[in-house]
Write a structure and sequence with these properties.
The chain has 274 residues and is mostly beta strands. 2% of the residues lie in helices and 43% in strands. The protein has one helix at residues 254-259, and strands at 8-12, 15-17, 32-34, 37-40, 55-65, 70-74, 96-100, 103-105, 113-114, 125-134, 140-150, 152-157, 160-165, 186-192, 200-209, 218-237, 244-248, 270-272. The strands form 4 sheets. Strands 5, 8, 9, 11, 14 and 16 form a 6-stranded mixed β-sheet that branches. Strands 7-6-10-15-12-13 form a 6-stranded antiparallel β-sheet, with no helix packed on it. The longest helix has 6 residues, at 254-259. It starts with 7 loop residues before the first strand and ends with a strand.
Length: 274
């Protein structure tokens, strides 16, 4: 865009980044919508000016499984049947339909979703499983595993144990309690080799143990991030983009630049392509 003998103040209408785009893999980026502002200045003695810009993210990681995913879960007096940790087509009566994490009960107002609990048959262990797809595990040099749990957890990927926290280091069964109580969403993390991943369907599974028979809180959520062999670049705003709003500096104030709603800007704002 070009104008003569003036200072231009420029803002883009809206730059949106959806959670499904893996915004969390890019340092400093947000999930949602925002207004991108820029000021371009020129000397009044110069006959013309130009403005353009782009926004690109360089990702070292890919989100393979994000927080808030939907999980099947099992809460019965006895343990689930064989195969719940690794079988992609596993079916068994008693597993609830997938629900979005965080899953659990009790905690603060901002705590987990409620799992229906039969107080008369409150088990020590609750089970969660999810099937997810991955096209090329060889793209990653390692996998970052992040778990938010209350209280103890044992985590599996395709039947292989990934992580054990706040639980007996040796034998653990359905009736085993966690070693101690933790905060509502106690966080643990580890890094594992990508050779545990399958090309195609994968099963991530967890058993979460409460701390005692009268424990009033349970919490589970997790994420998997693939650490890439080579970084990936994604363009969020390309050069030459349409939809820029622009105005002369004398027509707007610095406050207008910070607060302008691109969809409700006044007549002093014009629209152009960079």
């Amino acid at each position: 865009m070009r104008r003569y003998g003036m200072i231009l103040t420029v803002c883009i209408c809206t730059l949106a980044l959806a959670a499904t785009a893996g915004a969390g893999a890019y340092t400093g980026l947000w999930i949602g919508s925002a207004t991108l502002n820029a000021v371009s200045e020129m000397s009044r003695r110069v006959p013309d000016m130009s403005f353009d810009m782009a926004v690109r993210g360089i990702a070292e990681e890919d989100v393979l499984l994000g927080r808030g995913a939907k999980w099947e879960y099992y809460q019965k007096a006895g343990p689930p049947g064989e195969g719940w940790r690794e079988e992609t087509d596993f079916t068994e009566e008693g597993w609830a339909d997938p629900q979005a994490a965080p899953l659990g009960f009790g905690g603060s107002d901002a705590g987990p979703n409620n799992v229906a609990i039969d107080a008369a048959e409150k088990p020590a262990t609750y089970y969660f499983r999810k099937v997810f797809n991955l096209s090329d595990p060889t793209a990653y040099r390692s996998v970052r595993v992040q778990v938010w749990r209350n209280d103890g957890v044992v985590l599996y990927l395709n039947g292989q144990e990934l992580l054990r926290s706040n639980i007996n280091a040796s034998y653990v069964d359905h009736d085993a309690f966690a070693l101690s109580g933790v905060d509502d969403d106690g966080f643990v993390e580890t890094v594992v080799p990508p050779t545990l991943l399958n090309s195609g369907k994968n099963v991530i599974a967890a058993e979460v143990h409460i701390a005692s028979a009268n424990d009033e809180t349970l919490y589970f959520d997790m994420a998997l991030r693939g650490i890439r062999n080579t970084s990936r670049t994604e363009t969020f705003l390309r050069d030459g983009a349409e939809g820029w709003r622009y105005a002369a500096a004398g027509a707007v104030t610095p406050g207008d630049l910070l607060e302008v709603d691109p969809n409700a800007a006044g007549p002093e704002w014009q629209t152009g392509t960079a």
